[in-house]
Amino acid sequence: CKLAGSRDLAGAEERLLPAAKLELNAQTPTTYYVRVAAADASGGPISSYSNLATVEIEPGPALERPTPLTPKPGARAVAKGGRISVVFSWSKIKNAESYTIEVATSPDFNSPISSNSTRERGFLLKQAELKGRVYWRVRAESPQGPSEWSEPAHFDVN
Question: Would you call 113 exposed, middle or buried from its count of C-beta atoms within 10 A (0-12, 13-18, 19+)?
Answer without folding.
Answer: middle
